[in-house]
Design a protein that fits this description.
Helix content is about 40%, strand content about 20%. It is built from six helices and five strands; from the N terminus they run βαβαβαβαβαα. The structure holds 4'-phosphopantetheine.
């Protein structure tokens, strides 16, 4: 739609955490429409299939009118072009994230200067939160209540009970 600013928020979301939810909510200040873009990467060994992640994120953002959930393969900038997104949103938790985000943002700018990367600083309670920490905690029986949407915690417990595992990736 003309005059609407579209942003993409790419990631693995394996699984979506409250840190991601915070970034999704705060993206409102920089975009009218947000597309949460879940990367399809057959080389990674995620805990949840891409279809499961789409369902989880859709449920988590249901009721948020400006948010859509999609998957993408290949280069992010090609997906951004495809959905006419002029903003790429990423969350920054700590300095340790910076180098990776810096490199990715420069590379993406080189590939497609029309997409501007905007780094949103995580809200304090989520600065130590990561999908991989969440997976490890649930795997070894700890509680992640309040750190991921309730339906996600439930699905994780079920996965691990069924003997699924994951390879450290995100
Ligand atoms: O949640 P993650 O795993 O930190 O997300 C990483 C992601 C999906 C944003 C990144 O790996 C990505 O954009 N991959 C798509 C391939 C691509 O465009 N690579 C060039 C950027 S350097």
């Amino acid at each position: 739609m003309r005059g609407m600013r579209t942003a993409v928020y790419p990631g693995s979301f394996d699984p979506i955490t409250m840190g991601h939810m915070d970034i999704i909510q705060r993206s409102r200040s920089v975009a009218d429409r947000l597309i949460v873009a879940i990367m399809v990467n057959p080389r990674k060994h995620p805990l949840f299939s891409v279809e499961e992640r789409v369902m989880q994120v859709r449920k988590a953002v249901s009721g948020m009118k400006h948010v859509q959930v999609r998957t993408f393969e290949g280069l992010l900038v090609n997906f951004a072009r495809h959905v006419s997104a002029d903003v790429i949103i990423r969350g920054l938790r700590a300095m340790s994230d910076f180098e990776y985000e810096f490199q990715m943002s420069l590379m993406n700018r080189r590939l497609r200067p029309e997409s501007e990367t905007v780094l949103l600083i995580s809200a304090e309670p989520w600065t130590y939160l990561s999908s991989s920490a969440i997976k490890e905690i649930v795997k070894f029986g700890g509680s992640v209540k309040g750190l991921v949407p309730a339906h996600v915690e439930e699905e994780m417990r079920r996965k691990f009970k069924d003997g699924h595992d994951f390879h450290q990736s995100s």
